[in-house]
Design goal:
Length: about 400
C-alpha cells in the first residue's frame, strides 16, 4: 500500500523532498489525484499529497491577478472568478469525465503541471501563457521561486514555461500566480450541418481566418454529435461544425449574422445561444461526454489543421476508431475500441505513430495501467531532445525522486 505524506506548509514540503533525496525514495506528486491516470504509471511506495496546501492567497480583480496554493481546488478558483465576471481564459479541460473521476476534482498545481487548455486555446493560448510565477521545491530539496505578478517581471530563464507541462517531474509547486481575464458578456455558436470532415475543417479555417474574432472552432462527425446533451446537435442527424463567438451583446449578434452569411455556401446553418452554447463547448472541452466512459483507449493528436481529416481516415482504415476535431482541426480526439480483435494489444499506438509520421505528435490520454506501462504515452523524442530532457531532469532532480518515469523512462 502506498503511504501518503500530506504536508501543510512550504517548509514541510521542503522537508519531505529533502528526506526523499537523502533516502533516494521516489515520490508520486499529487495535487488532488484527479489526473493520476495521465502519463506512465509510477512504481513508488510514497505519495506527496498537496491537498493540504489550499486557498487563494491573493486576488486583485482590478489587476487581473490571482495567486493560490498549489492544492487549491480549481472549482474554488473558478467560483471566485465568476463572482467578479472573470475567468481562466485558456478554458482548462476537466479530465474527470474522461478518466472516470468526478468532475471538478482538479487542483491548480495539477492543471499547470499538465498544461491543460480547452477550445479557447486558438485565441487565448495555453495554460503556460497565463502562468506568471510560482514558488516550488526542486528535486534537490531546495525551495526556489520564479516570475512575478506581471509578465514584465519575468527576468532570466522563464521557468514557468518549463514547469508547465512537466507533469511534476522537475519540481513540486507550492503556490502559483496566474493572469485572469474578464468573462464575455454573451456567447453564441454558429453551426453548419452535414459537412464531411474535410469540408468541416475548411469551414473552420475560413471562420478562424475571418475578421469575426472566433474564440473556438470544432467539428463533430454525425456519430459523435449524436451523443451531445444539446438537442440541436444531438437531433441534427448529421455532422455538426461549430464556431464560437464571444463578447458584448450587440457585437456577438452582429458577428454571428456575418459568420452565417460567410459560411452559408458550406451548408445549412443554425445558431446556439448562451446556455446551449456553453454546454456544447464544455462537452467538447472535457471529451468524456462525447467519447464515453467505457473502455475505449483515447488518444490526443496534435496535427496541422488541414491534415486532421487525413490522419483520422488513415487510422479508421486500420482501427475501430472514432474521432472529432477541436482547435480548428489541429487537435484530434481519437477513441480506439477493441484493438486486441485486430491482432494488436498496443491500443493502436503503432498505427497512430505511422499515421502521424513526422507531421505531428500524439499523447495517450486514457488507457489501462498495463498499457500505459508498455507503450510510449508521450510522443517519442529524437536523440537530441531526449538528451536535453535528461540534462534538465538532472539539473532539477538528480536523484530522480519526483514522479520518476511519469513522462519517459528514466526521466
Amino acid at each position: 500500500m502506498t503511504e501518503s505524506l500530506r504536508p501543510e506548509s512550504d517548509e514541510q514540503v521542503r522537508e519531505v523532498v529533502a528526506w526523499a533525496v537523502g533516502e533516494e525514495a521516489p515520490l508520486e506528486i499529487l495535487g488532488r489525484g484527479s489526473k493520476r491516470g495521465l502519463g506512465r504509471p509510477l512504481q513508488t511506495q510514497r505519495s506527496l499529497d498537496l491537498s493540504g496546501l489550499s486557498g487563494i492567497t491573493l486576488y486583485e480583480p482590478e489587476e487581473l491577478i490571482l495567486r493560490a496554493r498549489a492544492g487549491t481546488p480549481l472549482a474554488e478558483i473558478e467560483a471566485a472568478l465568476a463572482e467578479n465576471r472573470q475567468q481562466l481564459a485558456f478554458e482548462p479541460m476537466d479530465p474527470g469525465p474522461l478518466l472516470g473521476a468526478e468532475p471538478g476534482g482538479g487542483s491548480l498545481g495539477g492543471l499547470l503541471a499538465c498544461n491543460l487548455a480547452g477550445p479557447r486555446r486558438v485565441k487565448a493560448g495555453a495554460a503556460r501563457d497565463h502562468f506568471l510565477g510560482f514558488e516550488a521545491v526542486s528535486g534537490r530539496g531546495e525551495a526556489f521561486k520564479s516570475g512575478g505578478r506581471v509578465v514584465k517581471n519575468v527576468t532570466g530563464y522563464d521557468l514557468c514555461k518549463l514547469l508547465a507541462g512537466s507533469y511534476g517531474t522537475l519540481a513540486v509547486m507550492t503556490e502559483a500566480t496566474l493572469k485572469v481575464l474578464p468573462a464575455p458578456e454573451k456567447t453564441r455558436s454558429v453551426l453548419v450541418l452535414g459537412l464531411e470532415e474535410r469540408a468541416g475543417v475548411q469551414a473552420l479555417s475560413r471562420a478562424l481566418g475571418s475578421a469575426h474574432e472566433v474564440s473556438a472552432a470544432a467539428h463533430l462527425p454525425a456519430e459523435i454529435a449524436a451523443r451531445s446533451a444539446v438537442a440541436y446537435i444531438r437531433d441534427a442527424g448529421a455532422s455538426v461544425t461549430l464556431v464560437r463567438v464571444e463578447g458584448t451583446g450587440l457585437s456577438v449578434e452582429h458577428r454571428c449574422r456575418a459568420l452565417r452569411a460567410e459560411l452559408a455556401d458550406f451548408g445549412e446553418t443554425e445558431e446556439l445561444h448562451s446556455h446551449n452554447s456553453a454546454t456544447a463547448w464544455t462537452e467538447i472541452r472535457d471529451v468524456g461526454p462525447l467519447l464515453g466512459k467505457g473502455e475505449a483507449v483515447v488518444w490526443r493528436l496534435s496535427v496541422a489543421p488541414t491534415q486532421g481529416p487525413e490522419v483520422a481516415a488513415r487510422l479508421r482504415a486500420e482501427l475501430a476508431a472514432q474521432a472529432y476535431y477541436d482547435w480548428g482541426g489541429g487537435l484530434v480526439w481519437l477513441a480506439v475500441e477493441g484493438s486486441e480483435d485486430l491482432g494488436t494489444d498496443d491500443g493502436g499506438e503503432a498505427a497512430v505513430r505511422r499515421a502521424l509520421g513526422s507531421g505531428g505528435h500524439a499523447t495517450l490520454i486514457r488507457a489501462p495501467e498495463d498499457l500505459r506501462a508498455r507503450v510510449p504515452v508521450f510522443q517519442p523524442q529524437d536523440p537530441a531532445k531526449a538528451a536535453l530532457s535528461e540534462r534538465i531532469k538532472s539539473g532539477f532532480d538528480p536523484r530522480r525522486v519526483l514522479n520518476p518515469g511519469r513522462m519517459y523512462a528514466g526521466v
